[in-house]
Every structure is written in structure tokens, then in C-alpha cells.
């Protein structure tokens, strides 16, 4: 690809051809109110292939509750002209070093970074709005000093709004925000410096230039963005910056590595970075709760308060179904929930739900709008978050008004079934949960066999969390699976594993039945039910032929079920011992299997000393077979077979100390929970 071809490439999820870009703009215009779009009589956007389109914020509205700017303000993305070709060529050469920064010493890296900043001095803002320049800057920031990051951040203050809505510079600002989040805690401990990196190394008498701290930079950024918040929420390039800013101000985890769904970057944007040798900022502090200065907490409170009162009802409702604005809106609701202001009359949530919080009486217009929102591809995501944050009272209102009597129909809908799952998994008390189970029970069979088992899993999640409804949910499963007689329950584990009704299972060829992942997940949840909720599964397990259950250990889904049985905290040790006895003299064969090796590890963790030695002897007797397998070698290492062969007494002493430590911690946890239970009983007696 030549230079001209490269310059036409667009970044991340903002990229793509002109047709896709127009489709995005068209979808946004249909959702948001006219106060956030450009009047066609005053302004006509240029074609996308001629450059970045202008963004116009309608200032003609006289609504006092709407965020406004001066009447002549027309906000367009920043433009500083084309980058000097020589500078561009220099930075491209530097990019190869940034892609693979193997410096001989820290001093070499500092000298390199300082030289790059010196070469681009005076052209910083121009580079942020350049396609390739902004990408190189993001890579440069990752190895820059905090002083250099603060200096670059401060250069963007005079033109913040126009840079935030630019398709390239918005990525640069997002990277700066992530690095600021990492540096805030260091700054609080006085570990930052106003001296540029490398000054001491080069031996020069560099003058200290006072730069704003990260705290001051963020406070100024908040003050700049707040008056234009609604407009920025509707902008496809600025909205992701608002989300990161909210998380930084709150000190909340920004990048959850364990759950990709919680990532700020979209899959498309992440793939763009990966294809161009970029790396995400995976600093540990971004995935944990961080300590934030009081000034930023106060700024966040003021921001939420201002936007709560300034965004009018029409704009708020528009954002609920806006692909661009809805993620920011949801993040704002999460923060308001933590501060206890979510369900106040006239709050942002109240406006989004058409005053359902402040006036829950019958309203035909509101009912129609919310029912449409349940089936909307974007509005459903918003309602899922509302279910998660709602109080018991609000959740009950939503259930009675919009879901009661419709759960079965909504559960089969390709979009609204996710809202139903969120409703069921967030039941607030036992009464709500049992009411939901009673309504969904006639449809359990249809849900299991028509690709909607997620609804059943949501109910099981609530049963586990609330420690209630075990009997009711098991009766619903029996009914859905077509189990009517007691002796038919012995096939429960098979019916769930293969997701088949009893009548079909009886006439089917067992060896040809495929495991269902969703069925395996349901069994694992049933094993976590409180009290004796696991007994139906265990009774069915022991009713099967041992060889049949052994074959499950070598299946991807079946092994998960066996592992869940062995690892479950609710199943007594005596019951687990019966399971372990079924695999006696088979541990070596399991150890060399990709999935069976996990079963051996699980058995090892729950075994006492005599049983561990029994497993150990079996592995040693067939050591050559086990060592030839990569999975077997992992099992041998986990069991410390070599130590047992050399010093068996030391191995036994180590295992005894580990078991003693486990028992000690278990006793501590049990003793800490016992007083609470006793106090609860006393309080109940006193109430009586």
C-alpha cells in the first residue's frame, strides 16, 4: 500500500468506508433530539471523502434545562494542517523502535524519547490530528516519563473540545487519560518530578519548568467538558473519552482483563491496535479500585449534579437508544447508584424512564415507550443496567408493569430475552424470586430445548445468591424435562447434560448423544444450590454406570461437570470420596488426557494424606506413560512426584502442613460467620 492509500485508512471502530460512516450518522440522527443535531437550513455537512465532517451544536433552544453554548458557536474537529513530510518520515522510522523497544539501558531509552520530543516540538497538536502521527504518539506515551505526559497533556488544554471530537486526537486523549489514572496515586505520594527525564544523565543544568499536576489537569478537563457534556455524549469520537474520564474520576477499574466484555475498547478497535503492533495499557492499577484525591471526587459529584439537572427529558430518553450515548449514560447511572442519588425524583434515571420513579401511576405513553425499549437492540442494554441497579421497589414496579404475564413471550424474543435474564438474575428478595419462578415454570421446557437456557441459568443464579427457591426451581426443571415419576429422576444428570426431554432420551442411542455446553453450565449451577439442592444431581450421578461416568472425564463439557462435583463446597467429603473411589486405578489414564488431567488435579486437592499416597503410587507405577504426555507431566509436577521419590518423609510433612493450614483458615471463616447467624436468630426472637 502506498502513502496515499495509507492516509485514507481510518482508525478502529471509527474507521471503514464512507457508506458505513453515513450509516452510523444516520442511526444517531434518528435517535437523538434535534437539539443535538445540525439544522439542515443552516449547515450542510461535506461529503466524508473530503475530510472530517463538522459538528454543529444547536444553540437555538431556549429550554433552561438544556445545556447551551453561545449562539454563534459551531464546534468542528480540530485542524492544524498537514504534517511536515520530513517529520512524518522521521517518526515512521522511530515507530520501528517503539514497536520493539529493546534499548541497551534505561539511559538509552530516555535519550531516544527526549530526542523524539525535541524533533516534534511545536508540532504536537498537528500530530494528534494526523492518522499515523496520533498512532505513533500513543506508542511514544507508553515509554515516556510522567513529566513528558503532563507537558503534552497541558498543550491540549486550549483546544480541548475540538480535539476531543476529532477521530484521531480522541484516541490520543484517551491514552493520556489512562496514563493519568496510573500516575495519580504516585502523585499523591509525591513521587513525581517537575524535572524532565534525562536532565541528570546528560549533565545539563536544565531549568525546572513548573507543569500542572495530573490532578490539576483532570480538574481543568472536567470544567472544560461539563458545559458541552450532552453534545459530547452524542459524538461518536468523544463519547468513549467521557466513559474513561468518569472511571478515572471515580477510581473504578477501567480495564478488566478477566472479563473482555468490560473493556473500554471495542473488539474492532483492539484488533486495529494489534494489527499495527500496538499494545493496550495493561497496568495492574487499571484493573483495581484506585485511591483518588478528594478534589476529583468533589469534581465528579459536581459533574453528575450539573448534568443531572441540565440534560432535559427528551435528550435523556434519546440517549437510552443511542449506540453512542447509551454507554456513557449507563456509566453515569452506575456512579449515581453508588452515591445514592439514582432514584431521586427528577433524576437522570427518572427522566430516562419517563418519570416512572417519581410518578409510578398508569401512563399509556410511558408504557408504550418502555415496551418498545425492551425490544430495542440498544435500549435493551440500557434496561439490563437498570435491572442491575434498581432498588427492590423499582424492580417490583418494572416487573409488575412490563414483564408480569409476558415473561414466556419475552424470553423467546432474540433481544428482549436478555432483559428478562437481567431481571431474573437481579431479583432482590425471596418473594420476588418465587413469583418469577412460578410464572416461568410452564415455559422451562421450551426455554431449555429452544436455545434459551440462559433464562433458566439466570433463575439459578438468583437462587444461589439469595439462598432461596431451590425446591421451586428443581420442580420447574423436572416439569420442563418431562420427569413425572420418582424413578425417572435418576436420569436427571443425563437429561441436563444433553438437554433432552425424558421421552426422547429413553429412545435415543446414548453413545451418539452430544453434550450441550449450556446443559453443563446448568448442572454446575444446580450443584451450588444451598442446603440439599445438590442431592438430585448426586443421586442421579450414582445411579449411572461407573464406566459411563468415567467416559465423561475425557469430554470437554462432561469433564467440567465431574470437576464441579469434586470441587463443590456444598457436597460432603464422604460423598466426594465415593466419586474418587470410582476412578481408582484409572488416575494414570486420566492424567495423560487433556481433560482428564483436570479431574486428577481436582481429586488431589480434596484428598487426605492416605488417598494422596494412593494416587501417587499409581502415577509412579505408570511413570513412563505419564511422563510421555505433556498433560501427564503437569500432573506429576502438581503432585510433586519427584520429591516423593527422593524424600517421602519431607513430602508427607509438607502435605500435612498444607492440610493444617487449610483447616485453620476454614475454621477462621466458619467462626467469623457463626456469630452473625446467632445474632440473626436472637434478633428474630426478640422481634417475635
Structure, explained:
There is one protein chain. The chain is mainly alpha-helical. The chain is 62% helix and 0% strand. The protein is built from 41 helices and no strands. Helix 3 packs across helix 6 (131-141). The longest helix has 40 residues, at 648-687. The N and C termini lie far apart (80 Å). The model is unreliable at 1-72, 196-206 and 668-688 (pLDDT under 50).
Short précis:
With 688 residues, this protein is an all-alpha fold. The radius of gyration is 30 Å and the shape is globular.
Tally of contiguous helical segments = 41
**What's the Cα radius of gyration?**
30 Å
Please estimate the helix content.
Answer: 55-70%
Mean pLDDT: 82
The helix/strand class is mainly alpha
DSSP strand count: 0
| Inertia-based shape | globular
Largest sheet: none
Uncertain residue ranges:
1-72, 196-206, 668-688
Beta strand %: under 5%
Span from first to last CA?
Answer: 80 Å
Amino acid at each position: 500500500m502506498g502513502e496515499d492509500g495509507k492516509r485514507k485508512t481510518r482508525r478502529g471502530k471509527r474507521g471503514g468506508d464512507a457508506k458505513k460512516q453515513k450509516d452510523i450518522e444516520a442511526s444517531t440522527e434518528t435517535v437523538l433530539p434535534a437539539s443535538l443535531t445540525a439544522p439542515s437550513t443552516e449547515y450542510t455537512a461535506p461529503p466524508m471523502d473530503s475530510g472530517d465532517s463538522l459538528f454543529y451544536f444547536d444553540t437555538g433552544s431556549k429550554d433552561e434545562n438544556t445545556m447551551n453554548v453561545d449562539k454563534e458557536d459551531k464546534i468542528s474537529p480540530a485542524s492544524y494542517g498537514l504534517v511536515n513530510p520530513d517529520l512524518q518520515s522521521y517518526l515512521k522510522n522511530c515507530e520501528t523502535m517503539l514497536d520493539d523497544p529493546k534499548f541497551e539501558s534505561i539511559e538509552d531509552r530516555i535519550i531516544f524519547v527526549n530526542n523524539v520530543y525535541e524533533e516534534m516540538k511545536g508540532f504536537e497538536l498537528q500530530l494528534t490530528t494526523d492518522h499515523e502521527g496520533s498512532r505513533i504518539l500513543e506508542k511514544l506515551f507508553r515509554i515516556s516519563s510522567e513529566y513528558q505526559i503532563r507537558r503534552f497533556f497541558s498543550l491540549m488544554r486550549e483546544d480541548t473540545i475540538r480535539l476531543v471530537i476529532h477521530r484521531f486526537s480522541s484516541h490520543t486523549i484517551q491514552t493520556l487519560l489512562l496514563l493519568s489514572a496510573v500516575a495519580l496515586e504516585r502523585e499523591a505520594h509525591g513521587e513525581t518530578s517537575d524535572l524532565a527525564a534525562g536532565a541528570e544523565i546528560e549533565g545539563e543544568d536544565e531549568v525546572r519548568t513548573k507543569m500542572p499536576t495530573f490532578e490539576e489537569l483532570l480538574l481543568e478537563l472536567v470544567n472544560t467538558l461539563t458545559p458541552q457534556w450532552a453534545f459530547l455524549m452524542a459524538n461518536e469520537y468523544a463519547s468513549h473519552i467521557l466513559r474513561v474520564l468518569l472511571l478515572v474520576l471515580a477510581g473504578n477499574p477501567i480495564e478488566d482483563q478477566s472479563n473482555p466484555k468490560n473493556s473500554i475498547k471495542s473488539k474492532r478497535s483492539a484488533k486495529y491496535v494489534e494489527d499495527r503492533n500496538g499494545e493496550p495499557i495493561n497496568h495492574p492499577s487499571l484493573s483495581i479500585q484506585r485511591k483518588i484525591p478528594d478534589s476529583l471526587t468533589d469534581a465528579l459529584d459536581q459533574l453528575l449534579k450539573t448534568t443531572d439537572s441540565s440534560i432535559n427529558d427528551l435528550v435523556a430518553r434519546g440517549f437510552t437508544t443511542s449506540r453512542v450515548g447509551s454507554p456513557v449514560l449507563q456509566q453515569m447511572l452506575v456512579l449515581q447508584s453508588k452515591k445514592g442519588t439514582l432514584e431521586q425524583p427528577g433524576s437522570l434515571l427518572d427522566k430516562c424512564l419517563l418519570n416512572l420513579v417519581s410518578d409510578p401511576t398508569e401512563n399509556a405513553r410511558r408504557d408504550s415507550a418502555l415496551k418498545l425499549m425492551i425490544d430495542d437492540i440498544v435500549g435493551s442494554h440500557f434496561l439490563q443496567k437498570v435491572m442491575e441497579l434498581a432498588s427492590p421497589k423499582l424492580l417490583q414496579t418494572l416487573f409488575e408493569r412490563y414483564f408480569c404475564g409476558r415473561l414466556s413471550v419475552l424470553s423467546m424474543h432474540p433481544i428482549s430475552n436478555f432483559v428478562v435474564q437481567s431481571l431474573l438474575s437481579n431479583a432482590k428478595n425471596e418473594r420476588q424470586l418465587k413469583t418469577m419462578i412460578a410464572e416461568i415454570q410452564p415455559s422451562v421446557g421450551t426455554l431449555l430445548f429452544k436455545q434459551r437456557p440462559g433464562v433458566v441459568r439466570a433463575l439459578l443464579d438468583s437462587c444461589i445468591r439469595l439462598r432461596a427457591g431451590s425446591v421451586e426451581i428443581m420442580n420447574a426443571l423436572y416439569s420442563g424435562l418431562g420427569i413425572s415419576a420418582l424413578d425417572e429422576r435418576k436420569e436427571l444428570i443425563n437429561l441436563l447434560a444433553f438437554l433432552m426431554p425424558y421421552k426422547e432420551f429413553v429412545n435415543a442411542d446414548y453413545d451418539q448423544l452430544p453434550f450441550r455446553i449450556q446443559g453443563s453450565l446448568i448442572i454446575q449451577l444446580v450443584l451450588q444450590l444451598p442446603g440439599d439442592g445438590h442431592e438430585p444431581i448426586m443421586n442421579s450421578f450414582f445411579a449411572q454406570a461407573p464406566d459411563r461416568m468415567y467416559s465423561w472425564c475425557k469430554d470437554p463439557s462432561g469433564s467440567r461437570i465431574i470437576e464441579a462435583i469434586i470441587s463443590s463446597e456444598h457436597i460432603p467429603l464422604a460423598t466426594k470420596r465415593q466419586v474418587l473411589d470410582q476412578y481408582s486405578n484409572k488416575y494414570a489414564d486420566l492424567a495423560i488426557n487433556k481433560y482428564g488431567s483436570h479431574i486428577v488435579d481436582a481429586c488431589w486437592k480434596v484428598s487426605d494424606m492416605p488417598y494422596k499416597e494412593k494416587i501417587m503410587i499409581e502415577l509412579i507405577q505408570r511413570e513412563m506413560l505419564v511422563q510421555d504426555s505433556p498433560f501427564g507431566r503437569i500432573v506429576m509436577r502438581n503432585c510433586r512426584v519427584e520429591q516423593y521419590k527422593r524424600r517421602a518423609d519431607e513430602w508427607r510433612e509438607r502435605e500435612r502442613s498444607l492440610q493444617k493450614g487449610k483447616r485453620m483458615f476454614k475454621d477462621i471463616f466458619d467462626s467469623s460467620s457463626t456469630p452473625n447467624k446467632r445474632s440473626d436468630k436472637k434478633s428474630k426472637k426478640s422481634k417475635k
